[in-house]
# Entry
Amino acid sequence: MVVHSDLRKRFENANQSHVFDYYDSLGDEEKLAFDTQLSTIPVEELQEFLTSAKANVASDSKSITPFSGPVVSIAEEELNANNDVDTWRQAGLYAIKEGKVAALVLAGGQGTRLGFDGPKGCYDIGMPSKKTLFQLLSERILKLQQLASNLNNDGEASQSTKNLCLYIMTSPLNHEATVSFFKKHNNFGIEVYFFRQGMLPCLSESDGKILLEGPGRVAMAPDGNGGIYPALQSSGMLAQMETAGVEYLHVFSIDNALCRPADPVFCGYCINVQADCGNKVLWKVSAHEKVGVLAEQAGKPCIVEYSDITTDMAELTDDNGKLVFGAANICNHFYTLKFLREEVLPNMANMYHVARKKISYYDGTSTVRPTTPNGIKLESFIFDVFPFSKSMAVMNVSRASEFAPVKNATGNDSPETARTMLSTLAKEMLSEAGARLENAEGDNNEDENERKNDIICELSPLTSYAGEGLSSEYHEKEIQCPFSI
# Structure
């Protein structure tokens, strides 16, 4: 009763006491469940979140200008001697060896759009090995940890290598299934930690009151992928990282089948230039590709959605014919933990946006399911922290080797396109190592689609993280396609 009494006072002080209007009608177990849910709500901060979110709507009219900071490119077509990739890779590997780097994957989504009933990370994209997105990711981490352990310090005896940990942000929808999947597979041999994305109550649009969807249940919604920041803190994961000596965090989404977790080149570059925040980008394939782009707003770095860029801006090119607003965002970010602790978390209230949605609500008798938007969900985006950065590092990478999104069941950004990209990259890596590939294009007498499916080739992450270490075994060796190595 003391806990419930304290909850009542908190909600009354925040002018949200109406949530208890039907409390006396609840059974004991229902009251306990309701109290538990209410205790997770930062009710004292809701009004500040809402006020800031409404102000953010007004600020969207501020002028958008091109990103003025340096953008280093390691895309094959732009790679030059000024980009010291080997130095950055070594710096990244040493930081991994010393336990200063951790990887974090945003994995709160379900595979619904893929026709898959389960966490998207548990989805098998159809490679010969039948590996899921989670397994591909985990094996890359395992290989990277091995590469880091092989380093030594200027000829001295190799120091012991600390584990490269993977942190997984789930959602209330898929948390248990994700944890169970990793447990079933013994975490694929890596050190894994799980924490849930945060939730916030839905609010009425007129007066910002918390909406109930039942007499003892608040209508809740995920707080957006920007919820990673408060969730890191509230779950204790941020403190755990700091205690373990982690200084740098690489964050990315699960739906990129070619993602390089804790990428030593990207992390090493950010570390070398002393960036507090980093963003990996791809250059747009066309002026009107529907992707958010890196730019500046009010003189600070930001991501601007394609719908907010005019035709003239989208088509603007520099003297070399390169798109000025061309740095496409792919949800692949670097942070120092100091930046998260000192700049991001104290400013979270300034990150929320208003999303007007149809929200089921309790009218005193039954739950009503509206047909038009009737309330507000507060959400934040992971890139909303960019304006807080004082030294952002940006790296442009090759689409063909680092970005194979798995979002749709068919067509673009589907398992089929991802399989093709992984297969093409596997063949390219072996060719660059000096291997002679036979039947790389398949039997020309076959149907084109059948030929593509027949020659899907796979190179395990356990064999090579990014093409390294292949020449000693495969130089001048004949490889018959399709292959699975």
User: Anything to note?
Assistant: The first helix runs from residue 2 to 13. The domain at 425-485 is CATH 2.10.10 (Seminal Fluid Protein  PDC-109 (Domain B)). The chain has two domains: 63-407, 425-485.
